């Protein structure tokens, strides 16, 4: 896997489903971190019709603090509307983890404070909305990381 997408306490099943499809298509790993707002049991996944789920390398980490303690040993970037650096200024490397908060609350303040030098945002020049949809943001971020590192084929 070239990249990992980490979703911290995601709440909306279709967003996670879209991101899982993205990971399956692009060969990225998916980390679900903390309490989820939905069930990812085999039965629930089948009922939701996620026929690509078997192609996703997904891991659920229950403890948010323990996850970030391990993540500190690696390269990662947080995506938040509260960040100061635009996403296209980040210089990605293969193996980076792209971290996103929940749809309702974003990333916890302690995470943003502790790792503020690794936080970036997606510009929204029109200013008509406070944020983009989580699955859209993850797709933009992953494609940019893959573009920068030559992981996209022509």
- Oligomeric form: single chain
DSSP helix fraction: 25-40%
Unreliable residue stretches: none
Order of helices and strands: EHEHEHEEEHEH
Q: How much strand? A: 15-25%
Mean pLDDT over the full residue set: 90
Tally of contiguous helical segments:
5
Set down the secondary structure blueprint:
Elements: E1 4-8, H1 13-26, E2 29-33, H2 42-47, E3 57-61, H3 64-71, E4 76-79, E5 85-86, E6 97-100, H4 109-114, E7 119-121, H5 134-148
Helix pairs in contact: 1-5
What report would you give on this structure?
The chain has 154 residues and is α/β, with parallel strands linked by helices. The chain has helices spanning 13-26, 42-47, 64-71, 109-114, 134-148; strands spanning 4-8, 29-33, 57-61, 76-79, 85-86, 97-100, 119-121. Strands 3-2-1-6-4-7-5 form a seven-stranded parallel beta sheet, with helices on both faces. Helix 1 (13-26) runs parallel beside helix 5 (134-148).
Q: What is this entry, summarized?
A:
The chain is α/β, with parallel strands linked by helices and about 150 residues long. It has helices spanning about 15-25, 40-45, 65-70, 110-115, 135-150; strands spanning about 5-10, 30-35, 55-60, 75-80, 85, 95-100, 120.
